[in-house]
Amino acid sequence: MKKTRKAVFTLIAIAIIASMPMISASAIYEESAQRLFELGLFRGTGEGFDLGRAPTRAEAVTMLVRLLGLEKDADGGNYSHPFTDVPDWASPNVALAYEMGYTLGVSATLFDPHDLCSAQMYVTFILRALGYTDDDAVGATLWGEAIEFGKSVGVIDDILLTGQFLRGNMAAVSYLALSTAPTGGESDTLLERLVADGAVDGDVAAQTLAQFRLFGEVGRIGSEFEKLTSFAMTRTVSSSMSQFGHTITTNSIMDFAVLDDGTIAINMGTHANDEKEVMEVYFVGDFVYMNENGNKYKVPLDLLPAFDVYALPGLSAISEITALVLYMGGYITKGTQDGLTVYTFEFSQDANGIDAGDSLSAPDADFDAQENTTMRSFELRFFVGEDGGLVKYGMYSDMQAAADVVSMSMAMEYEVTATGSEVYFELPDDLDTYLDYDDTMDLDVFQLGNPQTIAL
Predict the structure, then answer these.
(1) φ, ψ of residue 204 in degrees (nearest 5)
(2) Which end of the chain is more exposed for a tag (fewer CB within 10 A), N or C?
């Protein structure tokens, strides 16, 4: 179940990204690069950070050695490698990485330094640098399962795997690695180890370390929540869009409950101005039953292979959401409200690489492609009870679009209403009357994981 739950991260990430229309990779990862630069662990090129360009293998190993604070060791050490194709400028770093076991080359004598570095390659370098070996792999080699292993450790996610692996992606993976614990238990995070070793100034790293600790707290809360096999939640969404003095408001509520045996019940209603839609969905055994405004259908689950039932309420692997916010430049604060501990992740002007005041191209929007969208604010909030358990979390955004002609705002909150044996619901007694799916029915109605219908 945990593996299935983790897949939900993609949905919640889509919801976040959808609130930031068509941001370039260089903008998304600018903050990761800048923070690495301030720590002395990243350098640019003659083109600045050059985050929109794919790195070569030689550049990736150089980035790795610099990230580990070993560049001076490489330059001054007596390291060697067997490769005949490595340029002089990269040779010291490749030699150190080879002797440390971070890279093995593509053959006994070739490193292929000019080949482009893939996500699999760089994540493998990172995992080895964190102390993982083939002995930790489920299969034969760490290389063979680097991506899945990297996800489990927390150094990469599905967003970073989208499209070509660029220098920006490499900077984000590197920054996540700093917040990750190496094997051996000598420190909580790689950055703490670098500070202890004198590779990074402690005063310079203090703010980043404080942020990592708070992100770690939320990650642990999320990990505990992911262990639940029976829970119930209520999702409420309030949104509005105003244009030329006319405002459209939409409010929706959805109750979601899952039992230990995998049976799921969802009840949701949407109110858009004077229109109302009601839908009930039940996952029972091998079928999905849907009652949409009195139209009752059922469809076999195996006809929906891409559908993840845990995506329905926008549930998320919270530890993975925090990673997304972390490398995209969000900041986290910790406070209290109504007796609850509140963690707030905020994307705001002057606080992150996705500057909330920046104009962002939005070619897929309903207005002219040449117009712009401005993100005024975007926040994630997590509310935690005295027992350390998750009580509620929410996403809040405000945008201006089309030369400030259109304004949009949204508040989406999920409240945990029951867990364990407290979760209870009754299934309808007429499920046997629901119409069987046939080729004339439109399966689009069953795409409940679509963020347009559920998560946004």
Answers:
(1) -65, -35
(2) N
Residue 210: CB partners within 8 Å, gap ≥ 6?
A: none
- Residue 192, φ and ψ in degrees, nearest 5: -60, -35
Going by DSSP bridges, is the β-strand pair 287-292/331-337 parallel, antiparallel, or unpaired? unpaired
Specify the pairing of strand 435-436 against strand 295-300: parallel
Instruction: Please give the single-letter amino acid code of residue 202.
Output: G
Q: Does the structure show a pLDDT above 80 at 189?
A: yes
Asked if residue 312 lies in contact with residue 376, where contact means CB atoms within 8 angstroms, the answer is no
Torsion of CA 431, 435, 438, 440, to 10 degrees: -140
What does the pLDDT look like over 59-106, one tens digit per residue? 999 999 999 999 999 998 889 999 999 999 999 999 999 999 999 999
Amino acid at 43: R
Give DSSP secondary structure letters for 308-322: -GGGTTT---HHHHH
Q: First CA to last CA across the chain, in angstroms? A: 24
For residue 231, the cross-strand partners are 258, 419
**Which one-letter amino acid corresponds to residue 452?**
Q
Distance, CA of 126 to CA of 123 (rounded, Å) = 5
Query: Residue 295 pairs with which residues in a beta bridge?
Result: 292
Residue entry with tokens 């689950």: 301
Would you tell me how many other CB atoms lie within 10 Å of the CB of residue 234?
Answer: 18
Count CA atoms closer than 13 A to 416's CA, side-chain side. Answer: 21
**Model pLDDT for residues 127-152, shown as the tens digit of each residue:** 999 999 999 988 889 999 999 999 98
